[in-house]
Specification:
The chain is about 40% helix and about 15% strand. It is an alpha/beta fold and about 300 residues long. It has a 7-stranded mixed β-sheet with strand order 1-9-8-5-4-2-3, with helices on both faces. A two-stranded antiparallel sheet has the order 6-7. This is DegT/DnrJ/EryC1/StrS aminotransferase family protein.
Length: about 300
């Protein structure tokens, strides 16, 4: 700062910290959602789930209120909990580890490669024991991790894997996969690609963040998706996410609004982390614009190459 500069002068040349890119289209959709009477989980949330699945080239997506909730439910869906170990990179945001801790699992941190933000995959192999149930890869800054290498690692350690799981669904998922599960913390990576595949297609289970500072936002929010698992119905997995995310209610507000469908059961003492239609309204219009937003970001990145 020179002696002649004021704070206003400096502010004019400072790049703002991740301002959300919100257009009139998102604002109108939110207003329409408010006027519709559906402000909690409803038709817009379901539409966003369907469109995100198409975008990620996966069968199903479930939208939730954060990526942290999405990652925690990924662990719970797979029956990971007390007595299990989850390998997590040392260089990541706290949620990559805390989600596993919430489930009762022990986190094993693995350091980064020299001159890289990625995990040291040789050290990952060394860290796998007969208690290891999952490895969390982090697509930091939207750069897809080396999943090919990770799959080589878990296949080479297949003899150590013990399929257990603290739920029936979790046991069946672990048994069907038959090796250490690979999770993707793709909080930064919606729309990122590598070798012709998009984030969401690489790992067994993937979570995304739609927080206000992300490229794609619903203000707060997140989502889970997963690869098809032989012998396990994706519809069953989706339904279990719905139960976990809404207090174990057998019907959400949209389903209960159908004629004669007001009655429902509580099938488990679970959690409250569903997405609202107000959030989904932002997401729907963001998704319309997202290819263009990504291209613009690539243009800006190109100026630094």
């Amino acid at each position: 700062m020179s002696s002649n500069e004021t704070l206003n002068d400096i502010a004019k040349r400072v790049i703002p910290f991740s301002p959300p890119d919100i257009s009139d289209s998102e604002i109108k959709e939110v207003i329409d959602a408010l006027k519709s009477g559906w402000i909690t989980t409803g038709p817009r949330t379901k539409e966003l789930e369907k469109r995100l699945a198409e975008f990620c080239h996966t069968s199903k997506v479930v939208c939730l209120n954060s990526a942290t909730a999405a990652e925690e439910l990924n662990f719970r869906i797979c029956g990971i909990g007390e007595g299990d170990e989850v390998i997590v990179p040392a260089y990541t945001y706290t949620a990559s580890a805390s989600a596993a801790i919430h489930c009762g699992a022990k986190v094993i941190f693995v350091d980064s490669q020299k001159d890289s933000t990625e995990m040291d995959y040789d050290k990952v192999a060394e860290a796998i024991t007969n208690k290891t149930k999952a490895i969390v890869a982090v697509d930091l800054g939207g750069i897809i991790a080396d999943y090919e290498k990770l799959y080589e690692v878990v296949e080479s350690k297949k003899d150590l894997f013990v399929a257990s799981g603290n739920t029936d669904l979790g046991r069946r998922i672990q048994k069907a996969i038959g090796r250490v599960l690979i999770f993707s913390d793709a909080a930064h990576a919606l729309g990122a690609s590598r070798n012709g595949k998009k984030a969401g297609e690489f790992a067994d289970f993937t979570d995304f963040s739609f927080h206000a500072v992300k490229n794609f936002t619903t203000a707060e929010g997140g989502a889970s998706t997963w690869r098809d698992i032989s012998g396990v119905d994706s519809e069953e997995i989706y339904n279990q996410y719905q139960l976990y995310s809404l207090h174990g209610q057998s019907k959400d507000a949209l389903a209960k609004n159908q004629l004669g469908a007001w009655e429902y059961d509580i099938v488990g003492p679970w959690y409250k982390c569903n997405m609202t239609d107000i959030m989904a309204a932002i997401g729907l219009r963001q998704l319309d614009r997202y290819p263009g937003l990504l291209e613009r970001r690539k243009e800006i990145i190109g100026k630094y190459d």
